[in-house]
Amino acid sequence: MARVKFIRRRSDEPSQLRPSAPARNRPLAPAQPSSSAQNLDPNIDPRLQDVNVHPGTFGDDSLVSQGTTINPSVSRGAAEPSQQSAAQLGGADPNLVAAVSGLLLLGGANPSQATAPQVTAPQAQPRPRRANDIFPNIIQPPAVPNPDPDFGGPRINSTSKRVKRDTGESKKPTLSVEQLSMQSFKNNCRLDARRGTPQFNIFQAILQHAHIFFHFITCLDIDELVTLYAISKDLHNVVNTATTAIMLSQAMRYASDAATVFPFRCYRRLCNDDSRVELDQTRGQSRLIPSFRWLRMVRYREEVAQKIITMLNDEGLYLPGHCATIVKKVWFLMDIPDNQRRVAIIQNEDLWSASDLFYAIMLFMRIDMRCTDPLAKRAYGHMRRMLIAQPSMTMLCRVLERKFLINRVETVQTWLRWKYEPRNNDPADFYGMPLAELGLLQYEGYGKDGRHVKLLRPDDLILKECVRRGMDMEPAFFCILNCTGPRPEPVVDDDDTMSLDEADK
């Protein structure tokens, strides 16, 4: 008798039954083995194939009504239930043997082992199909407990059974071509913050590249640099590490001539101590580095010197461009409040050449010509002497701008500060000025140190140096008076003008 093997269909598998096939009344077991019974499809219900089965024998309802328990699991490696039943029944009826074999294949209990009816238990949910269920020869790796995510293990999301590895990379949204177009960028200068797109900071990007940062610093104005130095901590730290290079680059860009004439080492009060260098015990101070005060000073003096030359040229008193450097050198002499260092500097031919002395004389003569009446019978140089005796060239610039010494009161007060020597019977308020300020500018230190040594003015020192070097200044005076500047060439258009020969005709 042919053995028929039935495979129970799982609840999670798609049904392959043919719903149109009607139920037939078939015997419990096949009478005679046929050729068609030898080729059975194990995946199709045997009741739908050409197998004669008695009606109601294999139905699930009949099994439950008889008090049997459906066992969904069958242990692997044990003998098949049909073989066990056949061995127990021995030479019983073949139809009974086939029925018991079919029941055991469908998960029914063995009649020899079932002693009492059992209550049907709820069927457990079928577990997902694994690889070993389909391919039993594949060896699965042993289950490893979830490692600690802090030590490199995967982070498991509690809401999902799938393991998600945290790579630490944030997902950035991909912008379309329309969003990256120039028109969209003009309309929306800043990207929407809700998208999570990080804002690009060009200032922070420049700070990360040293070769670009120094070019960027050089292009900044002094006021802009001071503002960024005050509000940006990163730029503040970078500038402190290279203060000398940054200050000198700024000075050489905006006031290159003034940075050479007024070196920062000569202005101790405008410099800072380098904190990165240890204190020099021999001098009692560390290395000096320039500060923003020195940078503002050279920029201001460069502008004032250029303004003085421009205003004199506008008045018809020609001065060449080199005289702007002479104005700064005379200003440097004003910063020295004692005679000894002034004489040493003016006698140094590396600092004051013969051409510098000539242009200095030319500058003083132009100031005399500007401050005196050309129709006066006799001209005096008291105004020029009083202006050069001041500690700064700022007063000369203000006078040329007609902002100072515009009345007699200001002129008298300025002269009293420079030349007047107070007397015992003078009132405490002399022309609106205290007695302590009268006549201080004529002494060394500008009267601040209490010394009463007359201070030599820069114009006197330059005239004496010309005599000491043996320069013939008499023809130089005539050259300066007759010099009216370069004559501009007349612009002649051949189409609109005609020559003198054609005009005569």
UniProtKB/TrEMBL annotation:
Residues 112-126 have a biased composition (Low complexity). Residues 32-41, 63-74 have a biased composition (Polar residues). It comes from the Eukaryota. Residues 1-89, 112-174 are annotated as: Disordered. This is Uncharacterized protein.
